[in-house]
Write a structure and sequence with these properties.
By secondary structure, this protein is mainly beta. The chain has strands at residues 3-10, 16-22, 35-40, 47-53, 63-66, 82-88, 93-101, 117-123. The strands form two sheets. It has a five-stranded antiparallel beta sheet, with no helix packed on it. The radius of gyration is 19 Å and the shape is globular.
C-alpha cells in the first residue's frame, strides 16, 4: 500500500515523453511484487497508467488516458514487471508520476519492500532519413 510521488517540469517542444518503471520479481507463474505506474499530466482529464495503450491504428505505441472514476476495464495491468507510459507532443508543465505498491508481504519478501528503477525521458522531434541512405565511405569501425 506504499507509494512514492515524483514531480518534474517538462519543457515546451518535447515531442515524445516516455516514463518507464522496471523491477525484479520472485520466480513464479504470476507477479508477486506488483507495482503500479500512474502519470498525471497538465490539462488532461484523468490519468495515464502503465501499459494501457491506445487502440487506434498507427497509435498503439501511445498511452491512452483513463477517465476517473475508472471503470474496471481500465484497471492497472498486473502481468509484466515493467510498466511504461508514452505520450506524443505532451503539453509543457508540471507532471506527477506515482509508483504504488499493490502487494502484501510474502515468504520471499518479509519486509514488504520492492526496489525499482524509474526513468523519465523526453525527446525532441524525431529525425526521419530518406531512403536509400547514402553509402558509407571507408572502413567500418565498431
Amino acid at each position: 500500500g506504499r507509494s512514492l510521488r515524483y514531480r518534474f517540469t517538462l519543457p515546451a517542444g518535447t515531442a515524445l515523453l516516455r516514463i518507464t518503471l522496471n523491477w525484479t520479481d520472485a520466480p513464479g507463474p504470476r507477479l508477486r511484487s506488483t507495482l503500479h505506474l500512474t502519470l498525471r499530466a497538465p490539462g488532461v482529464a484523468g490519468e495515464f497508467r502503465g501499459n494501457l495503450w491506445q487502440t487506434a491504428a498507427g497509435r498503439t505505441h501511445l498511452s491512452r488516458p483513463v477517465l476517473l472514476p475508472s471503470p474496471l476495464a481500465d484497471a492497472h495491468e498486473d502481468v509484466q514487471p515493467f510498466k511504461q507510459v508514452v505520450l506524443a507532443n505532451p503539453a509543457p508543465g508540471v507532471y506527477e508520476v506515482e509508483v504504488a505498491a499493490a502487494f502484501a508481504a510474502y515468504a520471499l519478501n518479509q519486509q514488504n519492500l520492492q526496489a525499482f528503477s524509474l526513468v523519465f525521458a523526453g525527446t525532441g522531434p524525431e529525425q526521419v532519413f530518406a531512403l536509400p541512405l547514402p553509402a558509407v565511405q571507408g572502413a567500418a569501425v565498431y
